């Protein structure tokens, strides 16, 4: 399998988390669960293999996606298909970074996976054709970097006070007190919520819950022994039953089930559901 990532220039690195290209991926499963991280993705398939989303409970196919699609910030986990010998190219935006490029409020695509031709006209489909024609991963990266720099609208960059507040959430994933009054945010709580919906796609409180959950996943990854009571306490949960409920809400797994299935040794945000 080929997996390449691109070192982003400073002008993009503030808003784009990663750009990556993989080819000849041969998974040992056909369906995987993706837990919410707050990111928005533009996803290009370069192999002409249709992808599916699935009902989380029945795992029956829901929608089919081809060529290019946009996955907005999700409140809950989603189930997607994985394919052998696949090739994909992905732009992953930071949780507050997609708006200046997509140029539409993020809450309009939250909880959604949207076909590429429904966003930005045919621009994404045109970019996909160029990516298919480009040879090496580096050519694809340079092409995409130029495209992003041209798409970036400096008039739509997130305001500094929003970025400062988001940074505070990341630095204090287990502390809830400042969420009650907006902390040091200079405007009203309503203004803060409106800004979050526009730039992040979710409200501040829910965003903070997602950040905390992903910190929990990072904390337990590759651990051989775990005390859920200790982890719940360390992560700011005074009630272990609430911790269990929160963990299952975002992952679909009971914490003990998660460990029994050895999930802590898998990728932190993608969990196979049907190992072959």
Overview of the structural elements:
Helix content is about 35%, strand content about 20%. The strands form two sheets. Strands 1-2-9-4-7-10 form a six-stranded antiparallel beta sheet. By secondary structure, it is of the alpha+beta class. It has a domain at about 1-155: Jelly Rolls. The mean pLDDT is about 95. It has ten helices and eleven strands. Helix 3 packs antiparallel against helix 4.
The pLDDT mean sits at: 94
Q: In what order do the strands lie side by side in the largest sheet?
A: 1-2-9-4-7-10
Helix content: 25-40%
Architecture of one domain, CATH level 2?
Sandwich
Oligomer: single chain
Task: Count every beta strand, where a strand is a DSSP E run of 2 or more residues.
Answer: 11
As a whole number of angstroms, the C-alpha radius of gyration is 19 Å
Q: Label the structural class.
A: alpha+beta
First-to-last CA distance: 18 Å
* Tally of individual helices: 10
Protein topology:
Elements (H helix, E strand, L loop, with lengths): L1 E4 L4 H4 L2 E10 L5 E4 L5 E6 L5 E4 L6 E5 L2 E4 L6 E4 L4 E8 L5 H4 L10 E3 L7 H11 L3 H15 L8 H12 L17 H11 L4 H17 L7 H7 L5 H12 L3 H6 L9 E3 L4
Antiparallel strand pairs: 1-2, 2-9, 3-8, 3-11, 4-7, 4-9, 5-6, 5-8, 7-10
């Amino acid at each position: 399998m080929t997996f390449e990532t691109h070192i982003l220039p400073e002008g993009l690195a503030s808003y784009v988390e990663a750009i990556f290209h993989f080819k000849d991926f041969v998974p040992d499963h056909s369906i995987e669960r993706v837990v919410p991280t707050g990111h928005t993705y533009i996803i290009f398939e370069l192999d002409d293999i249709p992808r599916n989303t699935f009902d989380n409970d029945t795992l029956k196919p829901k929608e089919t996606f081809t060529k290019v699609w946009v996955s907005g910030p999700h409140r809950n986990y989603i189930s997607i298909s994985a394919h052998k010998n696949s090739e994909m190219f992905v732009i992953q935006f930071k949780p507050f970074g997609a708006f200046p490029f997509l140029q539409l409020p993020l809450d309009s695509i939250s909880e959604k996976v949207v076909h590429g031709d429904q966003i930005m006209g045919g621009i994404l489909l045109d970019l996909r054709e160029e990516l298919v024609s480009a040879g090496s991963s580096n050519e694809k990266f340079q092409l995409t970097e130029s495209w992003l720099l041209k798409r970036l609208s400096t008039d739509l960059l997130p305001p500094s006070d929003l970025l400062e507040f988001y940074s505070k959430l990341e630095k204090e994933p287990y502390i809830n007190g400042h969420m009650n009054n907006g902390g040091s945010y200079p405007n009203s709580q309503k203004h803060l919520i409106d800004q979050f919906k526009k730039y992040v796609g979710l409200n501040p409180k829910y965003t903070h819950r997602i950040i905390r959950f992903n910190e929990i996943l990072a904390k337990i990854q590759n651990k051989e022994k775990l005390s859920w009571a200790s982890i719940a306490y360390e992560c700011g949960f005074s009630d272990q039953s609430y911790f269990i409920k929160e963990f299952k809400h975002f992952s679909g797994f009971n914490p003990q089930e998660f460990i029994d299935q050895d999930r802590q040794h898998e990728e932190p945000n993608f969990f196979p559901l049907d190992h072959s």
